[in-house]
């Protein structure tokens, strides 16, 4: 091997390390807040109705702007955008750490979402550009996906340790040094080898997509405080649907669309986007409610709550990297996705059956079933998200699957929190004089929300069963033009 090529080779693997550190930061951010939220809520005195916005506003900014983030990276250079996003993320995290009220914390979370939307597509593109040989590429994405899956588990535990022994604020501050390490390592090691595409940004598309998504999720959040039939709730839903319909019409007509509609019209890709969004509705909501169950009903400390998520996080990694990946190499994606979603549904149904006095063994079994199921299902779902896509659309297709996750998560957090809160209030009104009434009411609310989550997972399985028709993989090397972003399992938090 030529000395120069050897140096370039080692630099690529160093680049992968620092790109993975950036991915770890995004995963940590999603997870630590779930554990820190009850403490933050107490410290900053915001209501149960507004608590979900701390999680939702991050996912909404992230999901709503992912397509824009990918496009900006193509236009001004991925390394430049990657570094800018890391600097911005560090600033937003510091702002969240010093928040003095709910508004300041929400602003910081929204900014984190904006910079994460710039970071995620740039990171995927940079790995794709650095690793062009199929076997190396698969190995590189394997490392990246392991960080994605493991980052969530690390985040839950880190969030617990920091919240308990320092303060919930450190769940924000901890992201600053991680970002700094990423910046210092990326400057000399990360290189953007692809040309930029000097097309114009589809501003009408950006505005219509972002505002439409904000309106829909705001409707779900508003339903908690105002009710489902309130004029503001219905108005938000109607506005959102109209704006998103207008977005589709604009995309069909503009010269350089933000989202070329050909990306959505292939049945396997469409099924991946829809089924992942439906599944994530239940998963994000479940994480939030389970965090509150551990801390408010069972009385766990933040560290214990973080540890209590391990029976879910570890099987999720096993499901993605062992079961899903091995099956996906041998058989068609449909049975893996349908089976995985149904198993996840069984796990969530077991959570719905928990009561105030349930043992940790019961909780752990339910969590393990959920983790194995969703890890297994998401592996082929991520793979067919770029099924048959043209090379020039691979970035948009990858951003779409991330958007499905983030938007599904935003809706899930708002919807399931709304259902849980209103069901608990109804229970309190109709049951008086019962011992530990507050705890029983909370658990009743969680149970109603979990049954709704089971319905969403059944819908994800149904969509997969009807629409997915991709065949079993051919045992041949991946062609150079094909995208290996396909094989990324993504952790859900």
Automatic annotation (TrEMBL):
Chief location of this protein within or outside the cell: membrane
Membrane topology: Multi-pass membrane protein
InterPro entries: EmrB-like (IPR004638), MFS (IPR011701), MFS_dom (IPR020846), MFS_trans_sf (IPR036259)
Superkingdom of this protein's organism: Bacteria
Domain called Major facilitator superfamily (MFS) profile: residue spans: 15-476
Record key words, sorted: Cell membrane, Membrane, Transmembrane, Transmembrane helix, Transport
Location within or outside the cell: Cell membrane
Classification via Pfam families: MFS_1 (PF07690)
Keyword Zinc: no
One CC-aspect GO term: plasma membrane
This protein's record includes keyword Magnesium: no
Membrane-crossing segments per the record: 15-37, 52-69, 81-104, 110-131, 143-162, 168-189, 201-221, 227-250, 271-294, 300-324, 336-354, 360-386, 407-428, 448-468
Molecular function terms, GO-annotated: transmembrane transporter activity
Record-linked NCBIfam families: efflux_EmrB
Protein name: EmrB/QacA subfamily drug resistance transporter
């Amino acid at each position: 091997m030529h000395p120069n090529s050897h140096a370039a080779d080692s630099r690529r693997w160093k680049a992968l390390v620092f790109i993975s550190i950036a991915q770890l930061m995004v995963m940590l951010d999603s997870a630590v807040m779930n554990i820190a939220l009850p403490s933050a809520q107490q410290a900053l005195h915001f209501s149960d109705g507004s608590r979900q916005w701390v999680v939702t506003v991050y996912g909404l900014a992230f999901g709503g702007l992912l397509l824009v983030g990918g496009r900006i990276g193509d236009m001004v250079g991925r390394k430049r955008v990657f570094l800018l996003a890391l600097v911005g993320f560090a600033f937003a995290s510091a702002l969240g750490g010093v928040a003095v009220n709910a508004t300041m914390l929400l602003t910081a979370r929204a900014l984190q979402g904006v910079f994460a939307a710039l970071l995620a597509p740039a990171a995927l593109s940079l790995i794709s550009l650095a690793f062009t040989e199929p076997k190396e590429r698969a190995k590189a994405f394997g490392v990246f996906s392991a960080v994605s899956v493991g980052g969530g588990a690390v985040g839950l535990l880190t969030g617990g340790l920091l919240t308990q022994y320092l303060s919930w604020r450190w769940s924000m501050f901890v992201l600053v040094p991680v970002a700094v390490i990423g910046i210092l390592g990326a400057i000399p090691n990360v290189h953007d080898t692809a040309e930029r595409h000097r097309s114009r940004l589809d501003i009408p598309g950006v505005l219509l997509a972002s505002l439409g998504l904000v309106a829909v999720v705001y409707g779900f959040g508003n339903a908690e405080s105002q009710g489902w039939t309130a004029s503001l709730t219905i108005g938000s839903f109607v506005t959102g649907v109209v704006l998103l319909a207008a977005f589709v019409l604009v995309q069909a007509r503009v010269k350089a669309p933000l989202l070329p509609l050909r990306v959505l019209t292939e049945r396997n890709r469409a099924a991946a986007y829809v089924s992942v969004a439906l599944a994530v509705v239940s998963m994000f909501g479940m994480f939030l409610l389970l965090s509150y169950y551990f801390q408010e009903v069972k009385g766990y400390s933040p560290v214990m709550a973080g540890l209590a998520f391990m029976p879910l996080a570890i099987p999720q990694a096993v499901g993605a990297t062992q079961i899903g990946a091995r099956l996906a190499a041998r058989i068609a994606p449909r049975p893996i996705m349908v089976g995985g979603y149904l198993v996840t549904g069984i796990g969530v149904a077991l959570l719905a059956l928990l009561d105030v006095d349930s043992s940790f063994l019961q909780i752990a079994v339910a969590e393990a079933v959920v983790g194995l199921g969703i890890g297994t299902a998401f592996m082929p779902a991520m793979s067919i998200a770029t099924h048959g896509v043209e090379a020039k659309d691979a970035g948009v297709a990858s951003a779409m699957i991330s958007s499905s996750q983030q938007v599904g998560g935003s809706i899930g957090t708002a919807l399931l929190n709304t259902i849980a809160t209103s069901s608990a209030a109804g229970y309190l009104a109709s049951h008086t004089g019962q011992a530990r009434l507050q705890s029983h009411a909370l658990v009743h609310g969680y149970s109603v929300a979990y049954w709704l989550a089971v319905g969403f997972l059944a819908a994800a399985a149904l969509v997969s069963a009807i629409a997915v028709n991709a065949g079993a993989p051919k045992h041949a090397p991946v062609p150079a033009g094909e995208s290996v972003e396909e094989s990324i399992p993504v952790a859900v938090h």
